[in-house]
Each structure stands twice: as structure tokens, then as C-alpha cells.
Amino acid sequence: MLRIIFTHLLLFLIPFIGYAFWLWINRKAQTSENWRSGPLIWLAFGGIVIVSASLFFLASFEHMPEGKTYRPAEIRDGEFVPGRYE
After folding, report:
1. What are the entry keywords (predicted)?
2. Cα 20 to the chain's mean position, in Å?
3. Which of 15, 37, 58, 60 is spaced 20 to 30 Å from 8 by Cα?
4. Torsion of CA 21, 37, 30, 11, to 10 degrees
């Protein structure tokens, strides 16, 4: 669960990282005024759109086969048995 939260947090931060990189490339990052007057609302909106799209695609393409039961991974007799559908 923590991995999923960190993944979506990273996806949300992509526009902010891109903007910081753009400021750095253009040598405008020396002042914090660029961040204060920057498009923070639009960056946050872009991050929300990216996270929403990732959740949509995750829900669309990740599905359990119908009529099957998932058996989680386990260690049986000292050997790792991966998760599977039965």
C-alpha cells in the first residue's frame, strides 16, 4: 500500500519537478519569486490529472480473471510459491 501511495505522490510531483527543471535550465531558479509567481495552481491541476489518468488506466487494465480465486504468495516447506489464480 505504501508503494502505491509513493507512486501516486511521485506522479503528482512530475509537473513540479518539470517546472523546477525548466527554471534551472533557464537560470531563473536563483530567486524564490519565480516559485511564488509561478503557475502553482496549474502545476497542481496537472498533477491531479496525471494521477487521475493513472488510476483510470489501472482500473481499466488490471482485472482479475472471471471465475478464478486468487491465492496469495506463500512459503511452503521453505520454498517461495508465487501468487496465482486458481
Report:
1. Membrane, Transmembrane, Transmembrane helix
2. 19
3. 37
4. -30
Parse the chain into domains and list their residue ranges: 2-85
- pTM for this prediction: 0.65
The grid cell for 49 is 490529472
Q: Per residue in 47-76, pLDDT tens?
A: 999 999 999 998 888 777 788 888 899 999
The rounded distance, in Å, linking the Cα atoms of 6 and 20 is 20
pLDDT digits (tens, 9 = 90+) for 10-51: 999 999 999 889 888 887 766 667 667 778 899 999 999 999
| Residue type at position 33 | E
